[in-house]
Amino acid sequence: MNIALIGYGKMGKEIEAIARERGHTISLIIDISNPHELTQENLSKVDVAIEFTIPTTAYTNYITCFKAQVPVVSGTTGWLDKYDKLVSECSNYSSGFFYASNFSLGVNLFFELNKKLAKLMNPFPEYDVAMEEIHHTQKLDAPSGTAITLAEGIIQEIERKKQWKLQEFSNESDFQIVAKRLGKVPGTHTITYDSEVDSIEISHTAKSRKGFALGAVLAAEFMKEKKGIFGMKDLLGI
User: Fold this and answer.
1) Among residues 119, 136, 139, 165, which one is catalytic?
2) Residue ranges of domains in the chain
3) Which residue in 76, 82, 107 sits closest to 5, CA to CA?
4) For position 162, what pLDDT does the model report?
5) What does the alpha-carbon distance between residue 150 and residue 191 come to, in Å, rounded to a whole number?
6) Of 54, 89, 199, 209, whose CA is between 20 and 30 Å from 79?
7) Domain 2-103+210-236: top CATH class
8) Which superfamily does CATH assign the domain made up of 105-205 to?
9) How open is the CA angle 125-112-120, to the nearest 5 degrees?
């Protein structure tokens, strides 16, 4: 399979290594030095694009790929205010799009565990719930896309929580997310249910980027010649 890598930072290089190990060809690499090379002509050589860039450029990259009839796998976070428009454009161009806030198998299992625990905790208001997420200092967005997905899962199940808030805590209907940026931490998410008598805590800690990169390559394999909107639940059959 011929792959375009849009975004060639640490994650892009990890994806490249795993893709080559699995027998794929990297036919096009786009980074901050050559964005002008993301053209329909160059994209005509690829089967699927894997996009890990920044929120301000991601949406334009998606549309460029759609116009070239190249399905996109993206892990860029922070652009979801345009998601509904993206879905419409994907349909207009009869293209394919696979999005995940996190491509790790373990994290996606953690998403499901998080929702199940939240459902169990809903009848017990004596337990308040909050989240701490820690990432490396080069991560630009906060909270992380993974943290937002976890927060949405909790808000969906716990009736007393209405919206998430970053850092601040205004009232009991807020779900607080504390975001920290430290050193080279790949990613840690900890959810705590705390009462006067005890605490319940679940946590996921990434040890390296390899789990994320492998998931992105598996998603690219899944998306070859596909049209429509997909995510990790489709890939993993959850």
Assistant:
1) 139
2) 2-103+210-236, 105-205
3) 76
4) 94
5) 9
6) 209
7) alpha beta
8) Dihydrodipicolinate Reductase; domain 2 (3.30.360.10)
9) 25
- pTM higher than 0.90: no
Cis peptide before 55 (omega within 30 of 0): no
Tell me the residue ranges of DSSP E strands in 70-187. Answer: 72-74, 96-99, 128-135, 163-166, 174-181
Rounded to 5 degrees, φ, ψ at 21 are: -60, -30
- Helices 83-92 and 55-67 cross at an angle (nearest 10°) of 10
pLDDT at 14 over 90: yes
Residues 6+ apart with CB under 8 A from 210: 14, 18
Comparing CA positions, the residue from 190, 99, 97 lying closest to residue 143 is 190
Q: What is the DSSP letter of 183?
A: T
> Phi first, then psi: what are they for 130, rounded to 5°?
-150, 170
pLDDT for 211 equals 86
- Over residues 117-145, mean pLDDT: 92
Given the residues 24, 135, 161, 204, the one annotated as active site: 135
Indicate if 135 belongs to the active site. yes
Three-state DSSP at 131 gives strand
Confidence of residue 31 (pLDDT cuts 50, 70, 90): very high
Dump pLDDT digits (tens) for 81-114.
Answer: 999 999 999 999 999 999 998 898 899 999 999 9
